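Example complex used in Figure S2.
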Amino acid sequence: MSKNLSELSGRKGIDDNLFERIGNSAQSTGSPSQEELSKIADEFLVGNANTFGTSSFYDFTKSENKGKKIYVCNGSACLCAGTQKNVSDILENHFKSEEIGHMTCLGRCYENSAFHYNGKNYSGRDIDNFSVNTPPKSFSKYVGNIDSNSFLTTPFEGFSEFSALIKKTLSRSPEDLLDEIKKSQIRGRGGAGFPMGLKWESCKNETSSQKFIICNADEGDPGAFSDRFLLEERPYSVLFGMIVAGYITGANRGILYIRAEYPEAVEIVQQAIDSIVKSAILTNTNGFNFVFKIIKAKGAYICGEETALINSIEGQRPEVRTRPPFPTQMGLFNKPTVVNNVETLASVHGIIKKGAEFFSKLGTPKSKGTKLVCLDSFFNNPGLYEVEMGSQLSDLVFKLGGGFKTPIKAMQIGGPLGGIVPVSMINELTIDFESFASHGFLLGHASIVCIPESFPMINYLEHLMEFAAYESCGKCFPCRLGTKRGHELLHSAIHENNKIEHSLFQDLLNTLQQASLCAHGGGIPLPIKNAMYYFENELNAYFKK
Amino acid sequence: MNTAFINNKPYTFNTGESILAFVRRIEGEKSIPTLCDAPNLEAFGSCRVCSVEVAFEKDGKTKTVASCHTPVTTNLHIYHNTNSILELRKNIIELVLTDYPTDLINNKTKEKNELQQVVEAVGIKKIRYPKGANHFRIESDESHPYMRSDFSKCINCFRCIRACDEVQGEMVLSMAGRGFEAHVVKGFNQSFMDSDCVSCGACAQACPTGAISDVFESKNLENAKITRTICTYCGVGCNLEVATLNGKIKSIQAPYNAEVNQGHTCLKGRYAFKFYDHPDRLKTPLIKKDGIFKEVSWNEAYDFISSRLEKIKSENGADAIAGISSARTPNEENYLMQKFMRAVIGTNNIDCCARVCHSPTALGMQKTFGTGAATNSISELEFTDCIFVVGANPTNAHPVTGAKIKQKLMKGTVGIVVDPRKTQLAKYATYHLQLKPGTNVALLNMMLYFIITENMEDKEFIAKYCEGFEEMKNEILRLDISQLEKITGVDKNLVKQAAIAYAKANAAMEFHGLGVTEHYQGTYTVQLLADLAMITGNVGKKGAGVNPLRGQNNVQGAADMGAQPHQGAGYLDVTDASINKKYNQFYGVEVPSNIGYKIPEMFDAAIDGKLKALWVIGEDVVQTDPNTQKVMKALKNLDLLVVSELFMTETAKLATVILPASSFLEKEGTFTNGERRIQRVQKVVEPLENTKPDGQIIVEMMRKMGYNQCDYTAENMLKEISQIVPFFAGVKWDELGINGKQWPVKADGSDTEILHKDGFVRGKGKFYYCEYEESNEVKTNSKDYPYIITTNRELEHYNCGAMTRRTGNVEIVTEDFLLINPTDAEKNYIHDGDLVCVESPRGKVDIKAKITDEVKQGILSSTFHFPEIMLNNITSNEHDSEAMCPEYKVVSCRIRKSRGKNLVV
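Predicted assembly (1450 residues):
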């Protein structure tokens, strides 16, 4: 979080972007050359160490990525489904093993066998007929219910409805619109549940000639494909939310930071942006201009954390910033910035169209509206559902999801930092922030990855710690060292039969939870503690008192 | 209002204060340990060792936060030493030690680094983790003469990276990789020597473990004596803390509580001290007999000098004797030297190196403002909206100020740089006006023109405080801007934008260096800088002013003390009868009232046979004054040349008598930095055996020649100086404190941060119109010598290099280079590293080419740090028309690829 780097990167603005330049220079070989990095550093007046340090951070720019041609998904859902060994085996017939890399979650959790080749994602049965010349089949239909309460899954009826709603919305005053958002009581869907109206108001209150709206489309949580759905199937909803955010806060630039793992999303959103530009509906409407830009991420889970994401766009290493100052005060290029996640932004058009009151009537006293949830391939009806906040978890699992295909012992709900919910707790939970928190879980984005009976819990924990260690930004001591040591302890317990000292492991989890700088290190103990509580008997063998 | 609680006790906090700062202020530095926080860096929050618990009510629900980056809020309850927090700190440190190569718990190596102290403070007993992945095998880096790294000891606190970024602004260091694999790299994971490191040592000072350190192991010293003193290497005046063991200097660090440098300094200040006991030091007085120096005793030397001086004085008069005092020596010694010349010899033939650097500044600012010194203070950079740098390259020549300016420019403060070279600051500035050397006056007139035609003058300020505006304005409005555009080679629209930016700023700060003064029109350029500050109302307020970057460490002081031929101590006019009377009374003898020789006039007089004796203190005029051959001819023509020196310089070689003097590390006194700050130089070590501080030498000579001068101590001398120099009235040795005082210091001891606060010292600020005139050098020679070479400085070396060439710096920059534009190089078949013969009407030198777009076509640039090159063989006799400062910055020359070895004609 170098203020100097933020400013120097900001001098060129978002259009000649340091991060993009580093990313582009990696395109031909998988990792940029020193000459290229040095040239970029000179141009942006930063150090060679800075361009080098940045490129060494990301999966798809670091030197280890040189020569990789195809990437196999190693997300939790594909892991539990057990499909990926077969995928790798088949791909080894087509590629040298050093040409095969990994990507973490391509968002195909409902059918698995996911991999990425040449800018396209493959899943399900694609692997059976794979050849370098066969494009992926259009993927299975995975959207569940759409009903009268739907906000997020309802599409615009063509571009005309979108532009009409934009026109109507921009004829209202920013204050009036902010009031509407605040009245809806919508909370961010990114995990922390922060009231969106307050965030926007805080940015609006800042005086600055430049402000930014960022759509955080880098949520790489294994198991969650709701963002991918919204970007690919409802791009106008997402863009609408950003426009309103810009109009209210006084920002005129909107940036979508989209995962490299979602290449189709990038294309589709760009097409939607192009249509908006062509229609000129955002050119000087009541003095308001709004220009979009997509930044393609380069493979780092931590960029889902908003300050890491801001650093990333600036071309800095995506290490988490301290707060305060908050992004709304000092964000991208040190300017006031709103970062909202895809689902949060996609809710806005529903609130504006149907009114705050309609939205706030849905859900519980503290969790309003609806929520997208994703069910993985262990469900009889896998896919994406929009449910009212406060719905019974059991209804989702059994009525909508149709129950499990094979025996399941637990579900990890809300991503790798979400809780591990044993099946015995299904009837206790409703889908809202409070119910999950009060039972010692976390709603997060509410996607569900099933852990089958046959899958050893200790292996799942090892997978989680390994993921946490691999994706740690490395800035704060507890997370950088703690996730690594945690993974080593679990690995050694499984593979070398070294029992873990129980009190040490508890100390480690407490240290991560209490002292980590962000929710990455701070969050990983939650599912592990859940597992140690609910699956004590199964895990006992690996621990000593 | 601002009440918060520490362990349930109420205290008042400062708005914006972090919990860490708050608790430490109340309960002491050791109350909360930390590893990533440092006094001169922004809060970062990586180590989490400073975690505390907070609640919004007494014994309420607590939350753990890192105290370094969490601000205190009203009624916050802070609990910083609960059991849970103490355990947490132990657990974090335990994790740190799993990847640390030495056993700090049962510390057998007795490492005394900060990590060790934190380990002891948190009281950890054992590491429970089994052996895991680690970084113990990283090789250490010994590539560099000063910098060292051993990253097996790195704990990833980021302090070094932040110091390189936030303090020096160099960004040589970064992390690479992520998670557990994250590791500090230099450049592209290179060695210090191969990276762009400028060896400032900020990283080494910041490191809590020794992962980055230096050859002097600055932080591993036990029982060292620490002496605080002032750096000798430039006018910034960095405070240094010098560690000595058994009378030997071990290392130097920069104190965080120094107002001038806040824990920072450059490689000269921090590392280039080893000259002080270098075997080359002169250790005994020498008298040349039959062309060979013979060792003599001090008494013999004094006898010899005094008898020769008496003889010359009686035969040729006092004005056949002259002195050149040293801007590297303290105020007290400069005062004594001018007193010796005036009161003992009886001549005003006294000058100092200010002549060849900032004499136009002193004159120009005296004429316009009434005082020849910086109007403001460097710390006011914090309050400025626009930084206007003219003819100065502070990142090389004034590195700490340069770094501060760079920090501001990087963070978006408007920067205007006027320089023929693309200096580092020019790269970061908003506007770089890359003019042809020698056209400053034309360019600044363009700026005045645009400010006037855009109606952006500060009319109120001008009416209230200034005179001569209308006359100047009328002349300016007559200028042909297109013609000036052609002369300067700078797009007039760019000049216009820069002029508007300067005029628009609430407070704009001017800095200038020798690129202003060392010109035919040097004084006029200074007057125009003053015009620009006045026309925009940028005088007498915070974050504004005209601020010359003084070159040598005490060049301000040397002039203040009267080491100049027209003004005595305190800038008092020697020709004024009443002042003359005052001096006569004070010194107890008759002092002369005719203006003496300036340095260039001394050389002319020597050649003419009118000057017979010259005493030069600490100045290598042969190597550093222009037109070497002429200087040598002059010195050789003297009957007596006395040189007080540390080393056998090119000038010393020509001496009749050499007096071995002591270095700044071996004496006491005061240096006055470029912002008029009088700071204490303290004796760090005893003078090398048989050498003497210049002050003592002069006092002994005065006594030898019959003048009763008191013993040399800083205290004694300041007592005397404060009685004759008006702006030193309240300066007392033991009241200067650690950060000194900025003159004028009133009798009550109060000092002055900003000059001309309520009107100008001269009464009204005076506007001058100065017309551009092409330098004679170019007018006369451009036909046969079409290139212009302009001289500059390297970061690593200081002036003639007598000191820095005898330190590790010489391994970093090994010789002088010729900067040449790629097109010019190609035209002349010159490749990078080729020897180029540069020839002027005075002579020629061979010098290695460095091809760079730092200079435009037709322009060359080089340094004169190395006697092997003697670049001043080609510089001219041209000088500033008013102050006689030589024109080092515009030298006509021609070039060709050299046929071979270095030639000195």
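The first helix of chain B runs from residue 19 to 27. The domain at 3-122 of chain B is CATH 3.10.20.740 (Ubiquitin-like (UB roll)).
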